[in-house]
Automatic annotation (TrEMBL):
Domain GGDEF: 647-785
Organism: Diaphorobacter ruginosibacter
Residue ranges annotated for the EAL domain, each copy included: 794-1047
Spans traversing the lipid bilayer: 13-32, 320-342
Reactions catalysed according to its record: 3',3'-c-di-GMP + H2O = 5'-phosphoguanylyl(3'->5')guanosine + H(+)
Domain called CHASE: residue spans: 78-242
Primary location group: membrane
GO CC entries: membrane
Keywords in alphabetical order: Membrane, Transmembrane, Transmembrane helix
Protein name, entry field: EAL domain-containing protein
């Protein structure tokens, strides 16, 4: 045990204790100072928090006033001529005193040009308020002559604000400056502080103004400044309102208006600050600060002081408590150090133990060298030979430790890496580098490559000499193989990404890290030309407003993606790629931490298709005119406008005359060209606000608006426009170098308000147009209610006809045909027996069937029924000799499938085609005579016969008769009726008989009613006839009975 027996020991005993004591006291003092500063920081932080809450509350109050102004602004935009009672009703509903403390009134300051002053005063004085008070004494004050006035027209509440009603703002320079600033900037501004006229104390206040413009969103020339909506704020009341929210807490406030802010954020024309609100300063307060509130283009400075302490007694006493604790700890440490001195002697005894421990440590080092998990090599720095290598390095290269000790390290290096590693060793030996580290390749004993991470450094002795280097070698072959595989995969992935049909870009820290080829194709730039996302927006979105809009949407989508799974929802934008071409893109992506993977899809083609589809939905592609869908929308607008303005309008229904003939004779291409030129001429005849639309086929509709306030004026105006159209259409059209003439038929109907629907107006126009066609075409006619009744009857008859076809109400009658005294056949006639209306004349329903297209179904039914009857008669020796004549309309004959239809009826029923005769009218020959002949020849080849009905009443020519494969001519009953009394009819009948005989055709007379008529025809060699002289048209059973009876009588004779 060590015994302290000298003064030297005592010195060593006390000095460490004194040092610890001094250092401990200094540390205690530092802790006391740090705690004192911390307490002051807490007080300052609490003061700042209260000040911030106060400033934020005031900002919210000011924003609530702005919301009031926005509501009034919206109302005035919708109704610029808003009356006083409406303004006061809305203002009173806002409950300013309860909801917006500090606001003493809202008002509207109207901009009045000097020339409009008198009309403004007259209108204003005539407007009553909500409480019934008159405004007849309204005056502009001060009343001075000016080029323009800014008059406080409406104010709420009126009571208490009478002094400012009618105030001309030029009398308050600061208020005028704020108003002009609001008008020029088109944004809300706050005036400089001034004394309010409508209060008697605490009069300091400001006015917030929000400009009102009408016509926004249209061309700049249509935008008009209406005035400003204002709200007067009493600043003392505003402060009291904020105080009422609990943000006061003994704060002493001084508010100062620093002035107006410019566009760069600096003060414009700084002036002496104006006091907004002031309370007495506290000389005893040592904490002060200020907050700036920016609102309405002005800077308000809020200076705060605190009237009471911000720290509790415990917080104030904490520094002293910390200092006392520090002194106590110092005392304890001093005692501890002195006790440790007593034990120092024990350290001498432990020195011997340390030497023994050193030997153990060296042995552990040798063991560590040999058994380390990495290769460790000791190299002779002069020869480069391996002096010593551990087991791991030996296993790494496949040599024994003994074999390695006779080798140079460079002997194991790959030939391609040996020179580089040798160069680094020389640099280290020369002292250029303290150590070397490199990745290189060694060759295993069996020849394969081993990748290593080599770190070498010199071993410096205490004498400063260096004889050996030590190298730590880590086998990284597996990592290199993985890196190579990863590189291969990455190259494959890049190849795949470059072949994707969408653009892909990886953005790291706002810069492009990768992009594929499609990205460059879409944008026209690669990531070398545009390296950051900010540069991408600036280059590809030229318009600043669009750029800011797109950028904001993108940032919002990215923020939303971070919170909802990482997928950035698609955003559409339009970019200007290199070369100036516009492209529509769909941007989407994935958030990867702070980075983004962005995908770009070029949707330009899809957008173009959608735009074309939208266009085709509302416009006719041939004429570029509005189609029926857009026409109905425009017509609804015209009806609403007519009701709103109590004016008349007109609808013109136009139809080209003989357009079908042009289509069929010169082709549909020529018809399409004519429709396009007609559309151009129609547009030139009407006002730009009126509508010209294609209604379908060769029909057009013109909608005329605002034709006058009387029916007579509207009718005259509509007739003038229609006549102008007729005159323009009479001018020839040049189509493919040839002049073509066409005309229009126009139907006109007037409308007033919304009494009739759009469909009803089009129906009336259609009726009037058909009347114009019926009365000679190339004319205009106005709608007549009687016409509608006729059409409604026709519509009802058409509906009955459709039902009759479905219910089998039609039947056939047979009128016998005689030749040389015997019944040789019959003409098949259609009859309609309505269950309620009884028999309906063919004169009524046949023309309607042709117009409606029902003639095709009826004609096919008649044809099939006649074939069935011929097939049924085939087994009877008398009836099988009869021929049935079936009337065929021109529409039915000219349909594409008529010939197959006839052949199918014959084939399916088994009827003899030689007993079927088709009666054609001369009107059929007007359309495509070549096609007519072709069809007749084909049917003739199957045995079907043909008869030309009502010959002599139509347009037949001898050349047509020569070409047509006819079997029979039929003399119209109109000629037969008067052959005995009218020499002309007798001559015509003889001529037809002679003509038919000369052409080898059978001639049959229709409508023979007397024996004298039959004898006349027989004397002129016409031996075939039909008519009431023999029999009227008969039902099937009666006809068969008649034939059988005549046949029996002939046998008896």
């Amino acid at each position: 045990m060590f015994q302290p027996s000298s003064s030297r020991f005592l010195l060593r005993f006390w000095v460490p204790g004194l040092i610890v004591a001094v250092l401990g006291l200094l540390g205690s003092y530092a802790l006391w100072r740090q705690q004192q500063n911390s307490a002051e920081s807490v007080a300052q932080m609490r003061f700042e928090q209260k000040s911030n809450l106060f400033a934020q509350s005031m900002q919210r109050r000011l924003q609530s006033y702005m919301d009031v102004l926005s509501g009034l602004q919206g109302l005035l935009k919708l109704n610029p001529q808003l009356q006083r009672r409406d303004f006061e009703r809305l203002a009173s509903s806002m409950e300013l005193e309860n909801r917006h403390p500090g606001a003493i009134g809202v008002s509207f300051t109207r901009y009045v040009p000097g020339t409009d002053k008198d009309s403004f005063l007259s209108r204003t004085r005539a407007e009553p308020s909500t409480d019934g008070r008159s405004s007849k004494d309204f005056q502009i004050h001060p009343d001075e002559s000016r080029n323009e006035y800014f008059v406080l027209e409406y104010v709420w509440p009126r009571r208490g604000n009478e002094p400012i009603e009618g105030l001309e703002i030029h009398s308050q320079p600061s208020n005028l400056a704020a108003l002009l600033r609001a008008r020029d900037s088109r944004s809300m501004v706050v005036s400089a502080p001034f004394e309010l006229r409508q209060v008697s104390e605490h009069r300091m206040g400001v006015v917030m103004r929000l400009p009102v413009f009408t016509g926004e969103g249209t061309e700049a020339k249509d935008v008009r400044f209406l005035g400003t909506v204002d709200i007067a704020i009493r600043l003392s009341a505003l402060v009291d309102a904020v105080r009422g929210e609990g943000h006061w807490d003994n704060l002493v406030l001084n508010m100062t208006d620093m002035g107006e802010l410019g566009a760069d954020g600096g003060l414009v024309a700084p002036r002496t600050p104006g006091t907004l609100f002031d309370e007495p300063d506290l000389d005893s307060s040592d904490i002060r600060m200020h907050k700036d509130v920016i609102f309405g283009g002005r800077l308000w400075r809020l200076n705060f002081e605190h009237a009471t302490p911000l720290l509790s007694p415990i917080e104030k006493g904490l520094p002293a408590l910390v200092a006392a604790a520090g002194v106590l700890v110092t005392s304890l440490l001093t005692a501890l150090v002195m006790m440790m001195g007593l034990r120092r002697a024990q350290a001498v005894d432990n020195a011997a133990l340390a030497a023994s421990a050193l030997e153990v440590s060296e042995e552990r080092f040798r063991t560590l060298f040999s058994q380390a998990a990495v290769g460790v090599v000791q190299i002779d720095s002069r020869t480069g030979e391996i002096a010593r290598a551990n087991k791991k390095f030996s296993e790494m290269l496949g040599y024994t430790e003994a074999e390695l000790e006779n080798m140079c390290l460079q002997d194991c290096a790959h030939p391609d890496d040996a020179a580089a590693s040798m160069q680094e060793l020389r640099r280290m030996a020369a002292g250029e580098i303290a150590e070397m580290r490199m990745e290189m390749r060694y060759l295993h004993r069996d020849g394969h490559v081993v990748w290593v991470d080599l770190t070498a450094a010199p071993i410096t002795l205490s004498s400063g000499e260096t004889h050996h280097n030590v190298a730590v070698i880590l086998d990284i072959t597996q990592r290199k193989n993985m890196e190579e595989a990863l590189r291969t995969n990455e190259e494959g992935l890049r190849s795949i990404l470059n072949r994707l049909p969408i653009g892909i870009a990886l953005i790291k820290d706002g810069a492009f890290d990768f992009s594929n080829e499609r990205y460059a194709q879409i944008c026209g730039y690669d990531t070398q030309e545009i390296s950051s996302l900010d540069a991408w927006w600036a280059t590809l979105v030229v318009d600043p407003q669009e750029r800011e809009l797109y950028r904001t949407r993108w940032v919002d989508a990215c923020n939303e993606a971070r919170e909802s799974g990482g997928y950035i929802r698609a955003q559409e934008c339009t970019i200007t790629r290199k070369g100036g071409h516009l492209r529509s893109l769909e941007m989407a992506g994935v958030v990867l931490g702070e980075n983004y993977l962005v995908t770009l899809v070029d949707i330009s083609q899809r957008k173009a298709v959608e735009e074309r589809a939208r266009y085709l939905a509302y416009y006719d592609p041939l004429t570029q005119l509005p189609n029926r869908r857009l026409l109905l929308d425009r017509l609804q607008q015209a009806l609403a406008m007519s009701a709103r303005h109590q004016s008349y309008g007109a609808v013109l229904m136009l139809d080209l005359d003989n357009f079908k003939s042009l289509n069929e004779t010169q082709g549909h291409d020529m018809g399409d060209r004519l429709l396009g030129v007609v559309a151009q001429r129609l547009r030139s005849c009407v006002h730009v606000d009126d509508t010209v639309a294609r209604h379908g086929g060769d029909e057009f509709v013109v909608v005329l608006r605002s034709m006058g306030e009387s029916e007579q004026a509207a009718a005259a105006g509509a007739e003038e426009v229609a006549q102008k159209i007729l005159n323009v259409m009479r001018e020839p059209f040049e189509l493919n170098g040839e002049l073509h003439h066409t005309t229009l038929s126009i139907g006109i109907t007037l409308f007033h308000g919304q009494r009739e629907s759009a469909d009803e107006l089009l129906k009336r126009g259609d009726l009037a147009m058909y009347r114009a066609k019926a009365e000679g075409r190339n004319a205009l006619r106005f709608f007549d209610p009687e016409m509608q009744a006729v059409v409604e009857a026709r519509v009802a008859l058409e509906a009955d006809m459709r039902a009759g076809i479905a219910q089998g109400q039609f039947e056939l009658a047979y009128q016998p045909q005689m030749a040389l005294g015997s019944i040789v056949g019959a003409e098949v006639l259609m009859r309609w027996l309505h269950p309620e209306k009884g028999p309906i004349s063919p004169v009524q329903f046949i023309p309607l069937a042709e117009e409606s297209g029902l003639i095709h179904r009826l004609g096919e039914w008649v044809l099939r029924t006649a074939c069935e009857r011929l097939a049924a008669w085939a087994a009877d020796p008398v009836l099988s000799e009869l021929t049935l004549s079936v009337n065929v309309s021109a529409q039915q004959f000219h349909q594409a499938g008529f010939v197959p239809q006839v052949l199918a009826a014959l084939a399916s029923t088994g009827a003899d085609a030689r007993r079927l005769r088709l009666e054609l009218t001369e009107s059929l020959l007007l359309e495509d005579i070549d096609d007519t002949v072709k069809k007749m020849v084909r049917l003739k080849s199957y045995g079907v016969g043909f008869s030309l009905d009502d010959f002599g009443t139509g347009y037949s020519s001898l050349s047509y008769l020569k070409r047509l494969p006819l079997d029979e001519l039929k003399i119209d009953q109109g000629f037969v009726r008067d052959v005995l009394t009218d020499p002309n009819d007798a001559a015509i009948a003889r001529t037809i008989v002679a003509l038919g005989t000369s052409l080898g055709l059978q001639v049959t007379a229709e409508g023979v009613e007397t024996e004298a008529q039959r004898q006349f025809l027989e004397r002129n060699h016409c031996y075939a006839w039909q008519g009431y002289l023999l029999s009227p048209p008969l039902p099937l059973k009666e006809f068969e009975a008649l034939v059988m009876g005549r046949a029996s009588a002939d046998l008896m004779v």
